[in-house]
Amino acid sequence: MQSEVQANRLHKISPLFILFENIKKLIFPIVLALFSTRSSSWEWFALGFALIISLGAIIQYRFYRYWLEGDKIRVQEGIFFRNVRQVPYKKIQNLNLVQSPLHRLFGVVKVQLESASGGKPEAVINVIDMQAVKVLKHKINDEEEQLNEEVAQPKDSILSLSFGEIVRYGMITNRGLVAVAIFFGFIMQFMDDQIERLITNYISQFTQWIDGLVSSIEFENGWLYYTLITIIGVVSAIIALWLLSIAMALLKFHGFVLVKNKDKLQATMGLLTRLQATIPMTRIQTLTIHESLLHRWFKRIGITIETAGGVNNEQQGVSMKQVVPVAPNGMRHELLKEIQGDVDWEAIEWQPINQKGWRRVLKVMVLIGLVITAPLALWNLYAYPIGFVIWLIYSVYYSKAYVKGAGYHINGQLVAFKDGVIFTKYTFVRLPKTQTITVKESPFDRRHGMASLVIDTAGAMVGAHHINIPYLDLGVAIAIKDRISDNIKGTKFNW
Amino acid sequence: MSSEQEQQQEAQQTNEQGQPEQQDNLISRLPESSQRLHPDSIKVSRITVAFVSLIIMLVPTVVALLSESYLIIAIGVAAGLIVFTIGFIWAKKSYDYTWYWLADEGLYIQSGVWWRKKTLIPFNRVQHTDVAQGPLERKYELGKLVTHTAGTRDASVSLDGILLDTAHELRSVLQEEGESDAV
């Protein structure tokens, strides 16, 4: 256990932050416990809880130690079950820093070290001061790197987001929608008559206010009146949603700066809580360009990456998936070149998939349409066929647009796939990063002599866009598979 | 071996509701070196299905005896029989459509009755391999080869229902090739 290297301990203020983290973890069970047990002794329970977790925080702090050895960091924690973990510097993929306003007050920072093992951070150092961070960074990054590295100047950054860009990001991504959904989902749990009455009361007050507004312009109670009310309602809802989304975007991305430091990307962001994340560029497994309808309206794109392992779940740590939250479409090649310079991005020519596939897309769309427009029949018998016909027209447009828009590209360096009508996405995987290659053939594929090709990579998030090329002729699918497998023959996978 | 293989393949193609032989699909493109699972694996999966359907029948029976409702027994037995019948047929079907073979580039596994897929695990992408054996498989000297890659959806690809010795052989091939490739 003894080593010549001096043991490092956490900053003296650490118990406070560990306490906060523990409270954050336990807040839901505690709140639920308080709501369910209406007995008079709940104060004692709460007090007991608080006592235990604060004691736990102090103990965690007292027993946490780390050593910066020659080629690895050793972290030791635990009282009865002592846990010693060694992470070689070379295996550390990301070094992330988190600094909330409270952290800044004490001049400390929380550090997360991520390796390729995936799941949760390999080591969390909660919290140390800036000097210790500097030493740690120096050790992890190459030795030759000098300690005097300054905070990166915006001028040599790849990308920095202005206020306007962040506003656009908020409007394009509409994260507020998710927040509202989660909020309502949460509220529903605690919904009882009283709260429900309160909410309906607010809604009716709001509609009355709009009602007053509209009727003050002297309208008859006709269809014009109702359409106007609907339009006002929808527009105000969209504006409210946008404002919420912009506020959330500002919280997350205020002062976003992406810097390239040798072979690492470093992003700094956040309004209240500042985050700093680094990613070695060679560890990028897949790169995806997002270009939704709204992106196109604003002439913008977004770029996300997946790294091997790392932290896939945003709740478990700082994840730096969004290397480019939003950027002008014109900067596309320039940015891609900065992130992966060894790829000839301008030479990419998209190959089409089998255009006959549109009938198959249409069939699926018709089936979906039959089901999702069915509830209309409950409202009005005629609404169902009308709704279905509207859906059908959209489906024909969608199916044709889908097969026209989808495509793939393969060269000696990478394999790429794009698809999507409203949310168009382009995913690129460099060939050395491919794992298994699968040719899939559904019964429907078989009838048309088609197949799809799927490539698995490390760190692929469930549901994320990946290389999954549908509606290929079987021969083409197998040819692509052969080309990739020929190419990776004899190349070792390097995380 | 190869002539036997061809016969099997032909049988395969006529099996498919008399579809023309020249039809181009994944099965028709199987190479000559492709191997089937061990026939005993059908027995193993049928016995497993039998156990499962027995449990499906037993649980409602116990519940029914306690609550004295005999309708539940009927439902339970019917469900158990359906599961057993489907499982019994499916065991043979899935055996018919599962193949594996080694090529220069890696291990191929072809599987799936309706939704078919051919997966290539390149030699140099194999992280490590496991050979596993359950109690029932031990009786028939069968085993399972699990190949782990650094991927996510295919983080572990298993080939279930081959002889334990075959599994060990495949494992050593995968390891050797992986090492010789990783210059």
From TrEMBL, chain A:
Spans traversing the lipid bilayer: none
Ranges of residues in domain YdbS-like PH: 61-134, 261-311, 404-484
Xref: InterPro entries: UCP026631, YdbS-like_PH
Coiled coil stretches, renumbered: none
Annotated Pfam families: bPH_2 (PF03703)
Record-given protein name: YdbS-like PH domain-containing protein
Automatic annotation (TrEMBL), chain B:
Region annotated Disordered, chain positions: 1-24
Superkingdom of source: Bacteria
Tagged with keyword NAD: no
Pfam families for the chain: bPH_2
InterPro entries with a match to the protein in the record: YdbS-like_PH (IPR005182)
Stretches with biased composition (Low complexity): 1-23
Residue intervals passing through the bilayer: 44-64, 70-91
Keywords of this entry: Membrane, Transmembrane, Transmembrane helix
Protein name: Uncharacterized protein
Organism: Kangiella profundi
